[in-house]
Amino acid sequence: MQMKNDIIQETNVEVAPRKNFIREIIEDDLKTNKYGGRVHTRFPPEPNGYLHIGHAKSICLNFGVARDYNGKCNLRFDDTNPTKEEQEYVESIKEDVKWLGYDWEEREFYASDYFEKLYEFAVQLIKKGKAFVCDLSGDQVRQYRGTLTEPGKNSPYRDRTVEENLDLFERMRKGEFPDGSKTLRAKIDMAAPNINMRDPVMYRILRATHHRTGDKWCIYPTYDWAHGQSDSIENITHSLCTLEFVDHRPLYDWYLEQLGVYRSQQIEFAKLNLTYTVLSKRNLLQLVEEGSVSGWNDPRMPTISGLRRRGYTPESIRLFADRIGIARSESTAEVTQLEDCLREDLNRRALRAMAVLRPVKVVIENYPDDQVEELEAVNNPEDASMGSRKVPFSKVLYIEQDDFREVPPKKYWRLFPGNEVRLRYAYIIKCESVVKNSKGEISEIRCTYDPATKSGSSESQRKVKSTIHWVSAKHAVDTEVRLYDRLFTEEFPAGENWRQYLNRNSLEVLKNCKLEPSLSKAKPGDKYQFERMGYFCADEDSKPNALIFNRAVTLRDTWAKIEKK
Ligand code: ATP
Ligand code: MG
Predict the structure, then answer these.
(1) How much is the mean pLDDT over the chain?
(2) Which residue's CA is the nearest one to ligand 1's atom 3?
(3) pTM for the model
(4) What confidence category does residue 462 fall into, taking pLDDT thresholds of 50, 70 and 90?
(5) In what order do the strands lie in the sheet with 183-186?
(6) Can you tell me the mean pLDDT for 473-481?
(7) Which ligand is in closest contact with the Cα of 45?
(8) CA quadruple 222, 224, 226, 227: dihedral sign
(9) What value does the mean pLDDT take over residues 468-495?
(10) What gap in Å lies between CA 288 and CA 308, rounded to an integer?
(11) End-to-end CA, the chain
(12) 276-308: per-residue pLDDT in tens?
């Protein structure tokens, strides 16, 4: 897949990053020299799925503050769960972070690199009498845990001696016990109001092949046991995470205090929620596995790879991340905000082109049979430096079916019998008659043109109420076009039956679209504005003789603009 789009020029949509409470904390810490002037963050994905737009928020935050405060940001894979993690996900995550424009340099880390260290830390806690091997089953652990209103009960194995715990823990590692038969648990307080502090599990026995450590381990640390220590090992200053970890912070702090090691400062911010989609890897995986979408990078998916394939630019996603901001309380962003960021970016940078998606033939009766004129068309009205191109005009053209009505409704100013419209960059034409096939469908619209109305000429002053786009039939390049709608019909597709809100009409494939010839060489990833139709991106499967374009986003106010001209 081609990632760099050479048609797109330098961006200018980005502005200075907005202040937020995390940046304020960091600036204060720099003033007080809290970490010796260091700013060191990390982005810690679990490689159990592809990254989505919510992760982009976290990436932009972590890498953004590192960049702006002369700091560093690590990429750390939190790979503590071998049953759900895969190398494919690691690769996709790296590709996506890079594509978003961020660089972790040589700091690509894995929690699994710390398995030995974490094991030693666990032994330290056992020696301090702060951890014990427990024989309760998973279900029993849950029963003993209590509830928000009731305290838990101590495990009957809680008072094992240090020697016994050391011996059992070592034998857990050696594989002497079956999966799930024992755990290592922290010894904290079964009556703690915070349930995370009720003797949480640190290790479980699990014979599963890990994507990096293979079969070396049959005990795996829990996320909670690995996370804070990983931050500490990497000397992270500000450990930025989402709000669901507020209640885990006391536990992370407890572990680090017991171990007497460096402590990072955890700061929580609100997750991104977005309308008309789901943002949980579990749900996204389900859509992929059930075939509701074509894969993780289906252009309807909120994944970074899906957005990229759809036609989103890294600049538009970074702009979105900056606009939605960082806050301490939950909120939901509208998907239209995301779309607006792409429009804004592509409006300034994408080449314009003419494409007819649902063609109907127009024959200009008084135009010479074999004549071809090369007409001048501007590449981007927002940016004169992008120049212009030639578009061929001839006797037989295609226009959109929608731009013609045999019987026009009220206020319809486009083409109908007896009416005139301007063809963009060309002439004013008038509809003289209609030819129908045996089924009564319109096969041809017969028109005449007014040679005195050529665009750009001194006599082109005559005004008509609308301007439509067109493509010369004999020069047209065929393409397939994929039009997308929201993946869900509900703003918040939640609950057990969230899949019932899948939009069955979220993809429309048009096979017979006509492009102006300059697009014949479009490469995967190239982006254009098809005049009046929206912004489109050549799909990764697009080939020179089998072009495929995805509509990234529609234009706003198209008709209002065009009809006034
Ligand atoms: P999911 O809920 O999709 O499974 P996750 O939180 O389990 O996501 P991780 O791989 O653990 O996925 O996430 C990596 C980082 O991205 C974490 O620091 C997490 O807080 C952050 N993150 C995940 N989802 C969002 C979101 N919607 N908005 C902002 N940050 C997010
Ligand atoms: Mg997570």
Answers:
(1) 95
(2) 280
(3) 0.94
(4) confident
(5) 131-134, 183-186, 201-205, 219-221
(6) 98
(7) 1
(8) positive
(9) 97
(10) 17
(11) 39
(12) 999 999 999 999 999 999 999 999 999 999 999
pLDDT tens, residue by residue, 12-54: 566 678 899 999 999 999 999 999 999 999 999 999 999 999 9
Ligand number nearest CA of 230 is: 1
- Contact between 97 and 59 under an 8 Å Cβ cutoff? The reply is yes
Q: Which ligand lies nearest to the CA atom of residue 245 in the structure?
A: 1
Average pLDDT over every residue of 123-136:
98
Helix runs in 325-406, H state only: 335-349
**Residue 232 near residue 257, CB atoms below 8 Å:** no
Report which residue type is found at 49. G
pLDDT band of residue 4 (cuts 50, 70, 90) is very low
Determine the residue of 22, 52, 55 to mutate for testing ligand 1's pocket, defined as the one with the most ligand atoms within 8 A of the Cβ atom. Answer: 55
Which pLDDT score is estimated for 561?
A: 45
Ligand 1 atom nearest to 284, measured from its CA? 3
Q: How confident is the model at residue 450, as a pLDDT? A: 96
> Which neighbouring-strand residues pair with 507?
484
Number of Cβ within a 10 Å radius of residue 384: 10
CA-angle at 545, arms to 542 and 547, nearest 5°: 30
Q: 321 and 55 in contact (C-beta within 8 Å)?
A: no
What per-residue confidence (pLDDT) applies to 460? 66
Cα(54) to centroid(ligand 1), Å: 7
SS3 499: helix
CATH number of the domain at 202, please.
3.90.800.10
Find the ligand nearest to 51 CA: 1
How many domains does one find in the chain?
2
Residue 177 within a domain: yes
Residue 502 has a pLDDT of: 98
CB 356 within 8 A of CB 398: yes
CA of 139 to the centre of ligand 1 (A): 27
Q: Please report the atom of ligand 1 found closest to the CA of residue 280.
A: 3
Residue 550 lies in a domain: no
Question: Per-residue pLDDT for 562 more than 90?
Answer: no
Domain boundary among 437, 453, 475: 475
Last residue of one domain, picked from the residues 179, 202, 224: 224
Ligand 2 midpoint to CA 45 (Å): 7
pLDDT at 331: 86
| Residue 483: strand, helix, or coil | strand
CA of 71 to the centre of ligand 1 (A): 22
Q: How far is the CA of 244 from the centre of ligand 2 (A)?
A: 9
- Using only C-alpha atoms, the chain has a radius of gyration, in whole angstroms, of 31
Q: Residues with beta carbon inside 6 Å of ligand 1?
A: 44-46, 54-55, 57-58, 241-242, 271-272, 279-281
How far apart are the CA of 57 and the centre of ligand 2, in A?
14
Containing domain of residue 139, as a range? 115-224
Looking up residue 406, the CATH number of its domain turns out to be: 2.40.240.10
Centre of ligand 2 from the C-alpha of residue 71, in Å: 24
233-274: pLDDT as tens digits: 999 999 999 999 999 999 999 999 999 999 999 999 999 999
Residue 245 lies inside a defined structural domain of this protein: no
Q: Among the atoms of ligand 1, which is closest to the Cα of residue 240?
A: 18
Residue 413 lies in a domain: yes
